[in-house]
Structures are given as C-alpha cells and as structure tokens.
Amino acid sequence: MKFPAPVSLSWIASLIGAKVLGDDSLQATGINEIHRVEAGDLVFVDHPKYYDKCLQSAASFIIINKEVEFPQGKAILVVEQPFEAYLKIVQHFRPFTPANGMIQETAQIGEGTYIAPNVYVGHHVKIGKDCRIHPNVTIMDHCVIGDRVVIQSGTVIGSDAFYYNSKKNRDVWYKRMESCGMVILEDDVEIGAQCSIDRGVTHNTVIGRGTKTDNMVHIGHDTVTGPNCLFAAQVGIAGAVEIGSGVIFWGQVGVNKTITIGDNAIVMGQSGVVSSIEGNKVYWGTPAIDHREKMREVVWVKRIQQLWEKNK
Fold first, then answer.
1. Which residues sit opposite 120 in a β-bridge?
2. Contact 70, 76 (CB under 8 A)
3. ω before 98 within 30° of 0 (cis)?
4. Rounded to whole angstroms, what are the CA distances from 64 to 28, 59, 74, 125, 191?
C-alpha cells in the first residue's frame, strides 16, 4: 500500500510507539509485505529467522522487535510487537468504513457500463467503460476494473487475503493480517460465476489484460497474471504467484504459493503445481512435470503387475 503522501519516520514512530535507529527525518512512501517490498517501503519482522531477509530486502525501513545492525541508508523502528504496529499503520490509512447502500458514493463507474440488480460496489472503486457486472457480484473497496470487463453472477472481487500472523504463545494462534492492497482487473478481462479474487495483503492482485476465468476459480492475494491467460473451472491459485502471459490452467489445477509460471505454460486438469515451471511446455500430474515424462511414468506403472508376474 502506498501512503497518500510520504510520511516521516518520526511521525510513524509516534503512531506506533517505536524507537528509531537511523535518520528519523527519512520519508516512508508505503508499507508492504516482504514478497512485494520496494524502495521507500516499511516492512515488519518479529522472528529472528526472518531478520536478515527483511534487512537485506528492497525495503528502506524495518519495524523490528530487537535492536540489530542494519545496512547503510536504511533505518529500523524498534517496537515490542511489530505485527501490532503493522496493524495500527494499516488501520490508520485504511480504516474500516461502513457501507451506505449497494453502490457507494465514492465509486466511479464508466460510460456504458451495466450494473445489474443486487451488485455491491464498495468505497473508492473504479470501474471502466462498457463493462457488464451481473447480479449478486461484490466488488470490495479500492478495487480497479478496466474497460470491457465482464463479471458473472456471485463473484467476489477484493475479498480479504487468507494471510495470518502465527504465534503459538498466545491464546489465538492465528491473527489476520489486515489487507490493504487492491484487486486490479485490466481491460477485456472476463471472470466467471462464483469466483473469488483476494486483494493483496499490502500490494495488488492483478489479472492481466484479456485473461478469462471459468466458474468457481479462486485467485489468492498478491498473485499477478500476464495478459491472455485462461483458467478453467475450479482452478485454485495460492498467494503471491507470478504467472506469465498466455498461461492455461485446465480444470481443478492447484498452484502453490510464491512460485513463478512461465509464459505459455499449459497445465493439464487436476495437476498440482508445487514449484516454479518453465514456459512453452505442457505439464501434467502432481507434482506437475512435462506431460510426456508423466505419460511414460503411467505406462511403466501399468507394467508393474506384468513384470511382477513374469519374475515370480
């Protein structure tokens, strides 16, 4: 999430009750989750296992629960509970705002766009020209819809990320990270019925231009697809996946989190993609491998009984 305007570290420190080590006049431009940090961002870390990853990341400022050495040009904000500090910052810049009807006054809707009955459009939503939004669609706050987009009935755009801070030393082990990112549907995207596309935790979930999804597809937080992808029914994509252009997932494909899918990759139905895969190939199976290799494997499995009988 980018702040409306850059804010000084001294102001952030006063908001969250932190001690600044480094130049407190430096300006933070946003807050981001570790997988999406950029220069100028704040990021939080509350476990020694991830200290170095955060300190060496692109983030300029680290909210941390211990005084540590940090790279030149960065600064740290030391606070007892970094996760709670993160929540306080998000709630300050993106406070919960109750709805006042089905279409909020701050929503912007382009010329020629059809909004069917029982569609909910949240605060600060932007919808482009010549879109068709079918009945019972929900578009949550701050989402951006391009031109000529079609969203079928019952779909939710911008649901909160399935993303939790876990600690076994408290009564509630899993505490939800407030989602302050957006969903962006680029021009000519079509989303089927009963789909769910989660907003980014702190960055954006982006569905590339011309991409089409079938019914009952789930796309997790911070996932970014290239243009002209095709996702068949019951595809499930976890968070922070980078998907290239022209990718096809056939029915019931499952995709693991934080991996990369190369351009023009095709994954056959009911496959499980557990690690990054190259583009311009066809994959099958769990874990998904080159479909020709998988076919040879299936042939050999079928021969096991025959070989057993022969060698008894």
1. 138
2. yes
3. no
4. 16, 13, 13, 34, 40
User: Does domain 108-292 match CATH 2.160.10.10?
Assistant: yes
Catalytic residue, chosen from 35, 134, 142, 221, is 221
For the chain, give every residue range classified as CATH 2.160.10.10.
108-292
- Residue 54 tokens, joined: 């955060």
End-to-end CA distance of the chain: give it in Å, rounded. Answer: 66
pLDDT in tens, 198-236: 999 999 999 999 999 999 999 999 999 999 999 999 999
Q: Which pTM was predicted? A: 0.91
If you average pLDDT over every residue of the chain, what do you get? Answer: 95
pLDDT bin (cut points 50, 70, 90) of residue 149 is very high
Whose structure tokens read 């939004």? 133
pLDDT digits (tens, 9 = 90+) for 151-198: 999 999 999 999 998 888 888 999 998 999 999 999 999 999 999 999
Helix, strand, or coil (residue 180): coil
Cα separation, 164 vs 174, in Å, equals 6
Domain at 2-93: CATH code = 3.40.1390.10
Within the chain, which residue ranges are assigned CATH 3.40.1390.10? 2-93
Distance CA 26, CA 242 (A): 32
Can you name the residues that pair with 183 across neighbouring β-strands? 205
Which contiguous run of DSSP H or E holds residue 294? Answer: helix 291-310
- Exposed e or buried b per residue across 284-302, where buried means at least 16 C-beta atoms within 10 angstroms of its C-beta: bbeebeebeebeeeeeeee
Integer Cα distance of 30 and 19 in angstroms: 19
> Any catalytic annotation for residue 203?
no
Q: How much is the pLDDT for 24? A: 84
